[in-house]
Amino acid sequence: MTVSRGHSSGGPLAAFLRARRNRVQPEHHRLAPGAQRQVPGLRRDEVAFLAGISTDYYVRLEQGRERRPSRAVVKGLCQALLLDDVAARYLRELSGAGAAVGGEVRCMDTDRLDAVRRLLGSMAVPALLVNRWLDIVDSNTPGALLHEGLVPRDNYARLVFLAPGAQAFFTEWPELARCVVAALRAQAGSSGARPARLAQLVKELAAHSDVFRAAWGGHHLYEKTIDRKLFRHPRAGSLALDQHVLELPGSEGHRIWAFHPADDATSDALLRLASPALPSGGRGPV
Prior knowledge:
The chain is α+β, with helices and mostly antiparallel strands. The chain folds into two domains: 5-95, lambda repressor-like DNA-binding domains (434 Repressor (Amino-terminal Domain)); 110-274, 2-Layer Sandwich (Beta-Lactamase), CATH 3.30.450. 44% of the residues lie in helices and 12% in strands. Helix 4 runs antiparallel to helix 5 (85-95) and helix 10 (173-186) packs across helix 12.
């Protein structure tokens, strides 16, 4: 099964350029749209003109015959395609213009990983440790309780798309699903020494979820910093939490996701959830 044309028609850089070109209208650059346009967005010659490169060279980029544009070309493409900071960094990573020296992603060593796990255990709010592929490396007890009943729970994208009951558990599931795909896509250009890990995950999710497959093909990008998350927990009821993302520099893309109660009702609900006195059939969804 073909997951995305990006892997069968020129590679990920070519697929990304095609997808982003289709989103930019001539009017965005004050170009005359003209009549009977054959494409939904800019034409290839228009992107080339705006980026300051030849049309032939840009065509080769979109066809995958050229995969290592210079920094100057990448900068011009960012301007032509109106890329925000996240998308511009993604383009640099795909093209190799933003790659780290040696091209390898540093892994978190055992001592540091143990220290981060102790930090998780000391946190009073639900918290998860995830890597760049959204694998759930570890969680503290409140974090496990927050997501109890959802299986599989080894990877957050698999949890959102494959766990029975996920669409009922996550109150705003469609929006969350789009964000998860876009966050995973944002890591595709920097998967370092393990690109096969991402490819395997994408293939699995696309095989089981039409929503994932369509969203992945859209090449949307998202970098999480803080989000309001709404849950409908089977025991604690409705929860509103602010999800904070704590970067761990010098690691293999590891981050801590900490879920802080957004209101007093959620604080009380989390306390009840953590209490062994709360019966398994306690407060249901409200």
